[in-house]
Every structure is written in C-alpha cells, then in structure tokens.
C-alpha cells in the first residue's frame, strides 16, 4: 500500500515539476515579446529613450562573426545606454530575414540590428526588394578587408611573384573563393581584371571561412579571406599573406603589405553597420550612436578587435550612409560584371 | 611539472569548482529541453563570462558545453525527443528501454557511457592534440563528401527490419535538404519566395516534429493502450553485467567519436551515427538494436561525448572552430586575450593545463549531476498522460520557436509532426529522415566543392589515401550484411549436414 501511495505522490510531484519547467521555459522564450508589447502603448512623442530593453537582431547564427562582434559591443554599450540590450539571432538567408524584420519594426529605436556587405548585394541579386535606404545607419562598427593567403612553404614571396607565375602559366594556380556575387569573390575578380590574369577559381561552400584551412591542408594554392578569418592559421605558421586589399595596412597586422603598395589599386571590405528602421527619430539615433560610440572606444572592444585581427570603427550615421551609397555603387557594378544583376 | 601544479592551484578554488558544476548542470538542462541547443546556451553565457577572470569564464563555458552535449539524452530516453541533435541515435535504443520500464537503467548506462567517452576525448585532447590537428587539415572536401556518404550508408544499421522503408526515409530527408539557397550559385531552390526557407530547413523543427509531435499524436490515438504510458520507473541499480558491457564497448565508440569530433564541421551528431553503426556491425546480435539494446545506447553516448574533447583539438591548436559551440568558445578565448594556436600552448601552458583539468572536472560534474537526475527524471514519465501530452506538445512548440524566435519554424514543426505520424503508420521511422537532412547538405556542398577543386574531375575522390580508406569502408559496410547472411546460412547448413 505504501508503495502505491509513494508512486502516486511522486507522480503528482512529476506533474508539478513538468508544469513548473513549462512555465519557466515559456517565460524565458516569450518574455522579450511581452516587454515589447507593453512598451508599444507608451507615448513615443516625448523623447525619453530608452525606457525599456533594446532588442538587437543579429541576422546570422550564434557564434558567427557578426554574432560575436555584436555581443561584445552590446555588452559594453548597454552600460552607457542605461537599459539592457538583448541580442537575438534571427538567422536566415544571409541576413535577408533580419533585414526584413528590422525594416518592418516600429521606428522607435527599440529594434535594431546589424548589416554586413550583403546589405548591398541582396537587392541587386533579386533576393530582397529594398537595400540600405530602408534603414538609418546608427554606426559603422568594424571593417574586414580582403586579403590573399598562400601556404607558408609556397614559392611566391610577393603578390607580384604570384601574378608573374600566373602570367607565365595561365590558370595554373587554384584559388578558393566564395560563390559569385559574394564580397570575397569580388576581390578575386578585381585582381584578375587589374593584373590581366586568370585564376582557377574553386567556389567553396561556407564562403571564405573554408579557404585558410584548404590552403593549410594543401588542397588549394591560395585563398581570399579577411585577416580575421585567416588569423589563427597564420599565427600557427601554416599560411602567410601576400597582400591586403585596404587603403592602408591593417592595425592588427602591420607586417602585411597592401595591394596598393604592390601596384594594384584594389580595395574591398566587408563592413558592419548598426541599423535602425528608416523613420527612427534623429534624437533616438543619436542616443544610440553616443552609447555605441563609447562602447566602440572601450578597452574591451578595442582589444577584442585587435586580437581578432579586425579593424574597429566608430563612424557616425552620416559617414556610414555615405559609405553605404558608395558601396551600393561599387557592388552593383561587380554584380553586373558577373552577370548576376536582377533589376 | 611546475606548470601542472600551478594549473591545479588555479582550478581548485571553491568558486571555480562551483562555476564548473553550475555550468554543467545548466548545460544538462539546456541539452534536455528540445530546441535549446549548446550554441544558444553558450551564446547567452558569453557576455556573462566577459565579467569573469579568463579561467572562470572559460571553465563556465566548457562546463556548459560538456553538459549540454549530454543533456539531450534525457529527453531522448524518456520522451523519445532528442533534446539535441547528437542524441538522435540515443533515442533509438534509449526510448525502447524506457518503454520496457527500464528508464532508470537506461539513464545510468547513458550517463556512465557519456562519462567514459567524455574522459577519453579529453585525454586524447591532452595527449595527442597537435598530431590530431594535422589530420584535420588533411581532410579536404573530397574526404568530407565521402565521410557524409559513409554516414548515409549507415542506413543499413538504422533502417531496422525493412531496408526499403529505411531508404524511403533517407530520401525524404535528402529531398528536404535540397530546399534553400544554392550554396554555390545563390539560386533559390524550392523556397516558394519565402525568405525563411532561404537558409534551408533546419533540423531542429524536423527532429522535434518527427520525433516529438508525431509521438504525441500516436499516443493520443492509442490512449486506451495505457500499458505503454503507465510504465514502471525502473530500478536505478545497474547490474554488474551492464558495467561490464559498458567497459567492453565504450572504447571503439569513443575512438570514433574523438576522431570525427576533431574534423571541423562533422561533430557529435555524425560521430554518434557512425559509432552506432560500428556497434551494430560488430555485434553478435545486431537484430536487438533499435529495440532497447544497451550496446546501442553505449555507442551513441560515448561517441558524442568523446567528440566534445575532439572538437577542442582544432580549436585550441589551430584556432579552427569545428562546430558552432566551438566558434563561441573561440570568441570567448579571444575576449580574454587568449589566442588559440600553437603559441597558446607555449605562452600560456598553465592556463591551457587549467582548461584541461577543468574539462576533466566537468566530466565528473556531469556524472554526478546526471546520476542524481537519474533518480528524479524518470518520474516524469510516470506523470499522468493527460498532463504529459499537452506539456510535451507545448515543449515541442516552444522548442521550435526558440531556435530562431520564428513562428515559421513552429509551422514547419507542426507539418513535420503530422507527416511524421503518417509515415510512422507506414513503418517509416524518423531517424533515417533526420539522417538524410543532416548528411545531405554535407555531402552536396563537399561533393561540389571537391569538383570545383578538381575542375570537374572525379579522380579526386579516389586518388587520395584518406579517400581510399573511406571508400573501402563504405564498400565493406554495404556488402557486409550480405556476407554475414551468407555465413550464417552456411553455418546452419553445416550444422544440418552434420
């Protein structure tokens, strides 16, 4: 008898436990949404911002480049903003999902997010019907220039060596690059055009992140990847750079010469901006900008950027917009050249 | 030597030990809840770890990583919903054991196997990390493509009685895998103009749908059939023969788990698929697998936990994150000014040793928390069904939503649940479908990457040493069941003629 009673009690305990777990999880998952709903009723005319947590949408999965940069930056910025910044990952379609969500969010500064160079490619390739004009840039947060890498024991010492070899033996060098229409691929095509050479281009799924490993393992001769991506294998002594596609040398790697120094005037970057929906009031954008600017200049963010090999920036909304307009022009041309333009 | 002592003194601090235990326990909870993944758990803890010392922060995250990989086995065994993708293979034998009233025994076996596998992985990490790292670099797209094919061939082991139905399941999974932007040309495939489908069907809604919701549906329809649901909780005592079985079988699975774990992009899920298959192939009684065979459970759990140590090899020695949880750890290391790579081992030896010791403690934390939970958790399935079914349904919905905070994933999950239920009626099991969806993209992208490298020459698949080994393994795998059948028939004939 006692056994059955005990089982019964344990059974009802289990019932309660299940319900408790359920409530816990529900509140965790839906908590953020409720806060949003409550805040909606507030009057947005008086600029008292922020009075509740700000949601920051990362359009790439947790652990990726955009995610880590954003989390480090937001952890600093919330100190200056006075309200928590909740980072959520709404990944899908190389940012297409988060762009759509932010563009359609209420323009009150409570939903913001970040871009990559894809903000200037989706619209021209027919994946989205809007570009950066659907947003107001808050700040440009960092820049990753393209660079070219070869195996440490490769015969080429400079970019010119590689080009000369290619000229003598056309299509003898295999370079790992991303798919057509990607920023990485643009860099490779620009070099081909400027030097009048042809690589054997091997498109790799997973974009430029796969490249350095393939070079180190001897699967390809060269790859194009940002220093931030190639850094670990470079420091491990497996691969070395021949040049970086920036106007000046990257602060984290002062030893890498630029393409320009070597006679090829090519620059290409992947830049990230923080964006808000386009009608967000200027005052709100400015409050956000001031907080993120302080965060971008904090020791933590600066050191993190330096260690990861990326270049930290704190461009204001105006400068960011100018850059985006320029980037649109540039990328549209590349996409047209690649025959991928969708009007 | 001094390094080791200073490392011990760094770790053996009350606060740090508590952080490791806390991280591991939290990880087990995250792993056990369907939809909450190791990656999400780590991403949430990451900003918290900024405010700690490097050793505290990293060990908290390592605890979370260890725990979440193991936690998925709870929901797989008790509810037949793999809480995390690596637990898909755990559900195959774990849940049938629970149904037989051996939930407690299943959890104890899974916990001990996880522990041994985890310890093995960490030992490999400590001893042969630099050598293993080179091996990871030797793996090119051609090798990965063949590894995926090898994984797909294990359908022989998972299909159960009907190979035909197994194949149908895999093909459904492979077809789902074609949805999304083509990774090479950016052309949308079967996305029906929806941006949610641009990055493809993620396997979390599929796993939750075909395992979880379809299970709920079939339970509801057989509501009168109460003996399945009102099961005994089972004894927690593990017999000596169980322990012996674990000790006999964990080693090959742990070796497989570590090796696959080292390969960037492969990870615990694929490790457990291959180890499970190996276990079936070498077993004297392959017919018992999938029906509650403890050896299947041992293979699945020891391999996916061994993969944790394995995945840290390329991360720490080369700075290559082999999985998305490892990518977050990479970020965490860098925030604390620790640059992974050979220099880390030279410059920060005590710190690296401290990580290893902490990781070892996390294994013990896992086994202690796991065995404690084994006493309470099985009671969940003794809860009344009218409480259980709605709660599981809601957990399914929340789990699918939590992945991307998207109701689209919830809809997908519901569709998969209903479809999975009907497929189950036709005898098509959920595991092969999930297998197809996980391995399909891995095969496709690497196959095409390899052809890009060779400029469309197929010789790339047969001219490299690792490829040849993999090809031979695939051939053996596919032919072996026929040889085995022939042999047993011959034996029977011999016995008859004698």
Question: What does the largest sheet of chain A look like?
Answer: 6 strands, mixed
How are helices and strands ordered from N to C of chain B?
HHHHHHHHHEEHHHHHHHHHHH
Largest interface summary: A-B, 70 and 70 residues
Shape of chain B: globular
What share of the residues of chain B does DSSP label as strand, in percent? under 5%
SS-based class of chain A: alpha/beta
Q: DSSP strand (E) fraction of chain A?
A: 15-25%
Radius of gyration of CA atoms of chain A, rounded to a whole number: 24 Å
- Percent range of helical residues of chain A: 40-55%
Alpha plus pi helix count of chain B: 20
Number of domains of chain A: 2
Mean pLDDT of chain A, rounded to whole units?
84
Q: Please give the alpha-carbon distance between the first and last residues of chain A.
A: 78 Å
Number of strands of chain B: 2
Classified by CATH, the class of the largest domain in chain A is Alpha Beta
Q: Return the CATH architecture of the largest domain in chain A.
A: 3-Layer(aba) Sandwich
The overall pLDDT of chain B, averaged over residues, is 84
Q: Roughly how many Å apart are the termini of chain B?
A: 66 Å
Poorly predicted runs of chain B are: 224-231
